[in-house]
Specification:
By secondary structure, the chain is mostly helical. Helix content is 73%, strand content 0%.
Amino acid sequence: MKSMVWGLAAATMLAAWVGAAEMPQTPPASLPQKVQRFQELIQKYGESGGDPSKIEPMMKQFQSLMEEKKFDEAERKIEEATAAVQDRSNIDPERAKVFAKMKELGPLAQAFGEAGGDPSKVEPIGKQIGPLIEAKKYQEAVGKIDEVLAIVKDKGNIDPKRAKVFAKMKQLGPLVQAYGEVGGDGSKLEPILKQVGPLMEKKNYDDAVKKIDEALAVVKDRKNLDPDRAAVMQRAKRLPDLVSKWLSAGGNNAEIAPFGDAVDRAMKANDYKTARENMDKILAVVEKAPERK
């Protein structure tokens, strides 16, 4: 729920910041610190019942100012937004109760799912909560959350067979991630995993378990690993941070864009060797300090 409410603010700030990083001019050193301070405060603002409608227009303005390279004005706007999230008059105690309830519900709902809880008992009620919050009907929203809490606490809504599926999925998760990082062939895995969701919807839990077991066999089979793909994945973990720092230091995105396009084309063609070669070209550029013109 918090991510839904504050998604616009976070996405707006990120888009603006990345856009600014790609420009020849860079923001003043004080601006990142003020943005970080705002990010620290906004989550607390949301949890304490802060009104997002007071903040979202400022974030849109902040984005526009960053894109226009009006960094002084952008800095004043983030200061204005920071003042708004610290203004107690923007806090609604009734809204705060909703988020306190949501915080209580979060871990219980997760445990309910992992234990084999029937989501069809929860989803129709859960869908009503967002619109009630948007309409500022906070007491009704709290009532709906209480209904969900009663369901997730009721052991009668637990299906042992469904629980077995989630136990298998929990086992599979880290193995799939490791499989990708060491060059696992996704085409061997994806068709199997696509069948799990429909089986779950039909409550064919035994068949879902069988499919997950098939997926487990795939990710454990060393024959499905590609060394070139593994090299690509290793570079993909390093590149985002290096590129971001290089752009922030004044690097010109046009220098690396052609290599990035080549990587994209190669990955779509499963040509991992070419993808790796072009990633190395990007690394060769961004691992050096940008040339000052």
